[in-house]
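INFO batch 0412 | record 1 of 1 | parsing
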Amino acid sequence: MNSAICTIFESHYYNGVVALYNSLYLQGFRGELFSGFRGELPPCFSAAKKNDSMSWPGARSWIVSEGLTLHFLPIDTDNHLANYKPDFMLALWGGPAKEAKKMFYFDPDIILTVEWSFIDNWTDFGISLCEDVNSPLSEFHPRRMAWRKYFKEKGICLQFKGPIYANSGFIGLRSDNRDFLVKWKEIQETIAPLIGGLNRSPFTGKEQLDPADCHDYAPFSRTDQDALNATVEYWEGTVSMVGKAGMAFGPGTTLMPHAIGSPKPWHWKPVLQAISGFPPRQADREYWKFVKGPLHIHSTGLVYRRKMALKIAGLIGRFYRRS
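INFO prediction complete | emitting tokens
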């Protein structure tokens, strides 16, 4: 196995998994895709059959087409899934994907819009990451300073590498750099007591962070993402980052539009959102472009109506949008 791709999902995010996997396949990826999931496996993946040959209890596999195999792996963790990414990747490398020379994690609300060969080769230059919409954070930004102070007290030394603040929705690395994941996991476990446990996250819900930990200047208000960026300072190797254009957060050539926030593309009502001053994002357009492929989840009629609605919404957005 040369390259393994993985994601983690629960609830309605299976919609995004379908579009993500279609985009990977249509951009040239061939190989094995590993989906960690919590809860019941959605009916759209019912073709996946129990696979006792994998070193993962309850694993199911589905050969969708020649060169594309999906593996669905139940996850048993109290962590919020946003805080489980390095754990999952390390578990894959220790088991079902132990032969993989490279591994890539994508959030299930990302669509790949560039040829897979570029992403696959990117890891030759170091840990592959994309800049976040909230970047940059300067060397002496209060949050970075708070990271250094906190971790120094725990015996962990951070070294400033640059002002770019990475998004945690994507990471790619070679097997000889997997120690980065070990350090990311260590960083997360070190901040767990401060935020009330890794079951907490900045996202809305019963496991949301306490108000005092949520504001933009709180040191770990982004939990896994702050931990990832602290790991960049902890890591002694090379990190290769692209700018905000990479995830369609800024102008330039896009690699993987990321539908951060809500509603997600599969819940987005294009015309209503446009009338409210929110024109379609690139991630919304790309989602409806890639929901049809080797995997299908929406009817042809719904896909057609959404694409027409996106065109109308785009026209409205040319004349009216919130500042």
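INFO post-check: The chain has a mean pLDDT of 91.
INFO record closed
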